[in-house]
Design a protein that fits this description.
Blueprint: H1 2-21, H2 25-37, H3 41-46, H4 50-56, H5 59-69, H6 71-74, E1 76-87, E2 90-99, E3 104-114, E4 117-125
Antiparallel strand pairs: 1-2, 2-3, 3-4
Length: about 130
């Protein structure tokens, strides 16, 4: 019994540590989406990584790209966080978005930690709801 309890405690410690590794990822994504919902592209731009900020140059260009390329992110009806995972040392947060027309979209957010703060380094639209697993 002691061995079982010790094993369980070790597993809980490892699991808690793994969750803490991604602590804040979902908050950053949520805050950016909330900024888009109220047309606050300046705030939304602050959640982008420096690479993305340099690529678009300013919040206006960034907002235009999101409105045209990711309308489901600009005006989501519902956002559901799926799994966070590491692939080749890179952190990805998968989300499922239902747009205002009721269509389902699955996206991967590539996240980077810069000076201890999570930033969005890219968003990838995946093919179909089958990708949500």
């Amino acid at each position: 019994m002691k061995l079982f309890v010790a094993s369980l405690l070790i597993w809980v410690a490892i699991w808690t540590s793994a969750l803490a590794q991604f602590d804040g990822v979902q908050d950053v994504i949520s805050r950016q989406i909330e900024a888009f919902k109220v047309d606050d592209v300046s705030t939304a731009f602050t959640f982008a990584s420096p690479v993305i900020q340099r690529k678009f140059g300013n919040p206006t260009n960034f907002g235009l790209m999101v409105r045209k390329g990711y309308p489901m992110v600009w005006r989501p009806e519902n956002v559901q966080f799926l799994k966070t995972r590491t692939i080749a040392g890179q952190i990805y947060q998968r989300i499922l978005i239902t747009d205002v027309a009721g269509q389902i979209h699955v996206l991967d957010y590539h996240m980077v930690k810069i000076s201890g703060v999570w930033r969005i380094n890219g968003v990838f639209l995946l093919d179909g709801a089958a990708e949500s697993a």
